[in-house]
Amino acid sequence: MSLYKLIEKPWGYYVDIYRPEDKKVVFKQIVVDPGEQLSMQYHEGRTEFWYVTSGKGLITTDNPASSLYVKEGDYIVIKPLERHMVENIGEEPLEIFEMQTGTCEEHDIVRLSDKYGRT
After folding, report:
1. In sequence order, what are the beta bridge partners of 52?
2. Which residues contact 65 (CB under 8 A, 6 or more apart)?
3. Hey, what's the torsion of the CAs at 111, 53, 29, 101, to 10 degrees?
4. pTM passes above 0.85
5. 60-77, pLDDT tens digit by residue?
């Protein structure tokens, strides 16, 4: 089991808080730097529950096609195959705690667009 493993990304970082061997559920802390964003993506086999603990963000999804402004205390559920991205629109880091269920593997990310050129 991996606990508290920090992974740096071009948009900030995430920390694996809980990732058991069977990977049926994963807990992460996601920190998005001001002005940065995650890729527009979807997952084939997992559901994500995001809870915003600090900062301001803009979450774009296709269920329904919309953008949602989020701040501390807000949450969103992202279902399998739902396209989504988050952007930090504030001046402070955007912190999100994420719980994944289903296929909790990084290879389940299908990127549709990415400002950092990742595929």
Report:
1. 96
2. none
3. -70
4. yes
5. 988 666 788 999 999 999
Residue for token digits 């949450």? 75
Q: For residues 6 and 27, what is the distance between their CA atoms, to the nearest angstrom? A: 13
Greater confidence (16 vs 96) lies with 96
Single-letter amino acid code for the residue at 105: E
Which residue's entry shows tokens 């807990």?
27
Whether 78 contacts 48, CB under 8 Å = yes
What residue type is 36 in one-letter code? E
Give the tokens for residue 93.
Answer: 């880091």
Which class for 50: exposed (0-12), middle (13-18), buried (19 or more C-beta within 10 A)? Answer: buried
